[in-house]
Amino acid sequence: MPSPPSGMGAMPAPAVPAPPRTAPRTAIVVGGGLVGLCCARALRRAGLDVTLVSEARDMPPASWGNAGHVAVEQVIPLASPAALASAPGRLFLRGGALDFGWTRPGAWVPWLRHYLPACRAGRARAGQAALRGLLAGAMPAWRRMADELGRPDLLDDGGHLMFWHDPRRAGPGMAHWLAADTGTATVRRLDADDFPDLSGVLARRLCGALKIEGTGRMTVTPGTVMQVLSDALYGAQVRRVSARAVGLARDGARTAVRLADGQVLGADRVVVATGVGSGALLRTAGLSAPVVAERGYHIEWDHGGMPALPPMVFEERSMIVSRFGTRLRTSSFVEFTAPDAPPDVRKWRYLEDNVRDLGLPVASGFARWMGSRPTLPDYLPAIGPLPGLPGAIAAYGHQHLGLTLSPLTAELVCALATGAAPGMALAPFRPERFGGTRRTRPRDPGPA
Length: 448
Known about the structure:
Elements: E1 26-30, H1 34-45, E2 49-53, H2 62-65, E3 69-70, H3 81-86, E4 98-100, H4 109-118, H5 121-136, H6 138-148, E5 155-156, E6 160-164, H7 167-179, E7 186-189, E8 208-213, E9 216-218, H8 222-235, E10 239-241, E11 245-251, E12 254-259, E13 264-267, E14 269-272, H9 278-283, E15 292-302, E16 312-314, E17 319-324, E18 327-336, H10 345-358, E19 367-375, E20 382-385, E21 392-396, H11 402-418
Parallel strand pairs: 1-2, 1-14, 2-10, 4-18, 6-16, 14-21
Antiparallel strand pairs: 3-9, 5-9, 6-8, 7-8, 11-12, 12-13, 15-18, 15-19, 16-17, 17-18, 20-21
Helix pairs in contact: 1-8, 1-11, 6-11
């Protein structure tokens, strides 16, 4: 069993049945974002004694700051011939949402070498098929988890809206989405009979609007969802260790996790859900994880009484606007750079200017946030056993879909951890698919 953190006494007996002797008994989940929290919860529900290792952060993780959109319609990976061809027109210097940290090329050029081959037509089609299958299970997994938490109110499956203001772009934009592969979601034009009342919400006249049905949204901020999960873990007696994991090593028939404070923890199962930190952590075990920091920005403010509306995507501006109670949040940008690079304040100003230009109701100042999405070159997550590390399982690289896929990822990880059938083919998501695994002599992890 993993050792409790310093200063913690013995924990009470778990309130769940103990697993059979032949089953794994202990698990460590490394990473405190939504994916890590969901994995810890699923493993505890399966009867394992779970330790969650999560370092304190100056800035909350990407899952805290996203739009709260369960994006099951995004079945076409951003590694595709079309995405590559459209990249020049989407650059920030041309008014788009795509940007690169030109002073930090070492953070993204190695990733780009893997991304370009992933954009080839054959690989892109295979990636689309894999992502479609994964996203088909996302909404059911969210419903199951919300019900199990006793909080079915967390999820609204009423879909979202997509708007255009430029008549030159509205027709082609709507035609694209009406013909696109959107998986289990459906797309239809909005007509006068079902158009939402936007009086007092938008000042600019719309030229086109679509309703995407079958998608979902969080009714509270993603940060509140994370707190609900944290409370559930506390109630289930999951141990919490506030520390940074700095190494992984084989320790006999198990994997050990070395922490920055010198502790070494071992368990029957170790789940790596460390987001953009996964690459550095896995390199300590001789494994390659070409994860890049794909940074996003948001601003949030009081709306002063705006009616309840589903998320609104302003396609020409690459913005999504979400309502969480008395607050509005708008998110955007795909910025490739080092995760510790200073924020680009121009991006916050861009969002603020667009909020004002759209005429969205503003009844307070703007709060600003920036975070790093963990993105692998083919825009598919890594879910599966980690080679050379007994009992270790990957759960990282969810790009824009971390919130969307976190409950389903947890179910898949739990199945792998306990020897159950995952229910879908996981070969497209195997963590070693980019190669680069090097053989290293197992290092003595120290006393566990």
